[in-house]
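Researcher: I'm preparing a figure for a lab meeting and need a structural model of a single chain. I don't have an experimental structure, so a prediction will have to do for now. The sequence is pasted below. Please return the structure as tokens so I can convert it later.
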Amino acid sequence: MNFLKTILFYFLFIIETIIVGTTGLIFVLFNKKYAFPTSIIWAKTALVLLKYICGLSYKVKNKYNLTSYLVASKHQSTFETLLFWTLVRRPAYIIKKELLNIPIFGHYLKYTGMISIDRKSGAESIKKILATGKQYYGKEERNLIIFPEGTRTQYGKETIKYSSGVYAIYDKFQKPVIPIALNAGKFWSNKKFTIKPGIITVKFLPQIQPGLEKEDFLNKLRDSIESESIKL
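Model: Understood. Here is the structure written out token by token.
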């Protein structure tokens, strides 16, 4: 039954993306300010589909309003990329450039100012993130969202090493980092097609204040996210 519900979800999710995306583009092409509201409607609708078709909902612990932070989250599924559109004010995801090629969806990534990088370019990617971050942490007061593991991981599997790119942003802009633990992969795995019913827990963890050295920062961030995610 879960398999059939998953098929129905993906079918409606694609239809929703086409309808909301193409309708929104009519307005976005005239004024880019409509890109964010359209993206939020798209994400909220997808979460509703998940809840009422697959029986998958979520709860958020310790949430507080975010303005001009660096959000570093565990990454286990597509779920968190949907959720942060609705939880975080004017999010700016750091994404791989290939996502810009996805029809409709890629246009919104571009119009909402997501930071696309070539993960093979190393230092050049960091330079681009820092250059864009200077603008986003200025008058725009956006929140940068990064998945420091670099890719989606399996539920229950601990990531030993985090990308040093997150430290470059932390050190450059001297902004607090908000670690986020979650267990989305328990229900929506990147290794399995079927979406399971249940309640995903998303937990905002204590801020990491500016001033730490690289090794201390990365260890604290990793230990915080991994230890809490394992408990969920």
